[in-house]
Batch of 4 targets.
Target 1
Amino acid sequence: MLRRAAQNKYVGPGAVLVGVAGAATAIWFADPTTPGGVLPTCPTKSLFHLNCPGCGSLRAIYSLMHGDVGAALHYNAVGVIALVLLAFTFVTYTIGLWTGRRLWNWQTLRYAPAVVLGVTLVWFVIRNIPIEPFSSLKV
């Protein structure tokens, strides 16, 4: 039974890493920065002609994998921040799982869900305002 518990400490994080590596490989080879590529466009953008909070995320990830942080921030600045927070969360969760101690994480803050929702809604609204400087946020 102890061996099974020890394996579970590695299976979950390992599965996440394999999934992320697979998605990153697909994004790397599909090149979402090229118009008319293999990866589909955002359904919200296709149907409603609006930039959703996630629009540009694939291009931002592609740019980050190629070391172009400026382009990644142009495509989706909030998405880049979200990726950093997700990576931090994964690392703290994994370390806590392996050590048996729960580590501090931003998700445990009392207002974290409300802040994330607020930032997402504000990002959705400001990137769809049709006047400068907001129109430059469209991708």
Note: The chain has one domain: 2-137.
Target 2
Amino acid sequence: MTQDQNQVNFLNTAHGSKIAWSGWQPREDENITIVFFPGHGSDMDGTKAIAAADWARENGYGMMRFDYSGHGQSSGDMMDGTIGQWRDDALAVIDHLTTGKLVLVGSSLGGWLMVLAARARPDRIAGMIGIAAAPDFTDDLIWDDLTPDQQAAMARDGQIALRNPYSPEDVIYPYQLITEGRNHFVLRDRMATPYPVRLLHGMDDEEVPWQTAEKLAASFDVHDINTILVEGAGHRFSEPDQIDILLANLGEVTLAASKT
């Protein structure tokens, strides 16, 4: 694995995606790699991903950043993507590009995919940190908020355009993202997590309500979990003081993971 933090490499997966990634192995006296799962429409060069990478390098941990198919520098069209495909992208990265223990960090959509990856590779996981995690958002935060007329139109047209809080251009969600996402819900049953879990969420998040963090926490059977609700923080959770909170919790989780 490359040791150049800025070098972008590509992984050709068995399911057809060409995944862009950047990362390095942990220092010899460490056995922990941090894997960052970005949000929907984001990429591995976001503020939180870079901050986590800088922190990992300074502290001797391995790091893995990557783009889902249809995102960033990876192949594909985001409109063709599904939760299952993006989960498979993440698992391919984990299986082929990392070794040892993993601490997963997932932002928004990445928080959902992080949980799916942890369920699929339980023996590899040593900790999880969610940042405005959005499990099951395709139904809970999109479909269920549509009127019956909007639902019918989305099924008929194959997509729907909704307001984008960060841009004058609407966000377009394809219908298959909704229907396929129902195969991957994680809030409907419980999951054993015998490792530390931290869930960071802004109380001013207008996209994913902070109560989602409490629902996700309640779905875990875990001995070490902390839900941290931050006043004044929005969905992006990328202001300097919020990055400080992320890095402090990353320090807690990696320290606990290194002792197991």
Note: The two ends are 25 Å apart (CA to CA).
Target 3
Amino acid sequence: MNHVARPTVLLRHDLPDRSHHFDWLLDLAASTDAPLTTFRLQQPVHAKQQRTRLAAEKIADHRRRYLDYEGPLSGNRGTVRRIAAGHIISAVSTSDQWLLTVHWTAPQPIVQQLQLDRHAETDADSSQWTVFCISQTQPNP
């Protein structure tokens, strides 16, 4: 995939035990009804500075309703709140590496170039990834 302009959101997931993590949902599919690729993060990706790394765990794909949904989750799984939203404006991927350009529009405009690397050296099916912020700029008005 190359030029895409697809939505992405970052949700803060507050759990009943008062812990939290962030779910980063990316619309990377060609179909408008396909589920969203999802990563669990301990820190928000949109707030990372250039040249920083962040551990990520690829988790089960999420339904598209989470692009807009905020509130309680069924089954006593806590609540989610959107903390960032934007669009993936380009994406190039292999099975072990993705290069993304993301234009975050909220809470403030930021354009990030991100590299995601799968930890395939230990397990070909590894869910463990690293997110590397290659660059971060303010978009032109």
Note: Residues 6-137 form one domain.
Target 4
Amino acid sequence: MAVVKAGAYGHGLEAVAKALAAEDIVFLGVANVAEARRIRHAGVATRIYLLGPTWAGEREEIVARDWTPCLSSLAEAEHFNRLARAAGMRLKVHIAVDTGMGRGGFLQDQLPGLMAALEPLAHLEIEGIGSHLPSADEDEAFTRTQIARYLAILDQLGGPARFKWRHLLNSAGLLGYDRTACNLARPGLMLYGVSPLPHFQDQLATVMTLKSRVTLVRTLPAGHGVSYGRQFVTTRPTRVATIGIGYGDGYPRHVSGQGAEVCVHGCHCPILGRVTMDQIMVDVTAAGDVIEGDEVEMFGPHIPVAVIAEKAGTIVWEIFTGITPRVVRCYLGDRG
């Protein structure tokens, strides 16, 4: 199950869904029906799985389009059953169990008798069971306990063979833990070339490179302020390039003053002063003959996005998903 929610982590939902569909995967995982619609409108036929609880007003469309929801309550299951009966169909659904995330799913004390309660809902096919790991990249002991809890729940609900699809492991779970508990993987971040466990990073390839261009190059004298608030003042004559990107494009303002760099002509060049809405200034004194129009890597193969996230005091997920629509996405090897 390739997780493509939030615009495929900012990479572009339709293009990524098409590329992944060509790899013969079982499911595309989305957050809501709006994302599911966009995938279908793009002509992608891969099964769609809704990763979280749905509200009543969405469920008729889910049934009509035969998307696969996860169930977090009996009331939700009963509603889906009524809608599927009215549509004259049997809807495939998955049970969500809360093994420690606290965001959705059946709680431990709801599990006794759960399958017996679901059994009379003849228009539902209980196809799978899933849970989610909240701390696989931070708390190994808790995660191992959680995996054991998931296995115990499988046994409690009739054994692994009761479910066609068993899924628990996100990217960190897949990279760092025993995979035998499941037969369906749910990678997200690692699909986009970043490991949530840093020691696996060399096994992944960069997917997104965020680029801009130099719009202006000037030499500023010593003692000249750069950007709002004069947070940075030159101490020597400095060759300063203005770059046509800013926080209005999703490049994080919080890297200001934190030693963040960009790459120009293969040279790492420090950002000077505060990131503004549409422009960034960088010191290109050491980068050679930089001119207007030169390409600038904001992050990518030379400037790891994880470094930018760290300097911004945030996580890679937020950097990726925060890139705004005005940034044009260009795809290599576009399958059309």
Note: The CA atoms of residues 246 and 278 lie 4 Å apart.
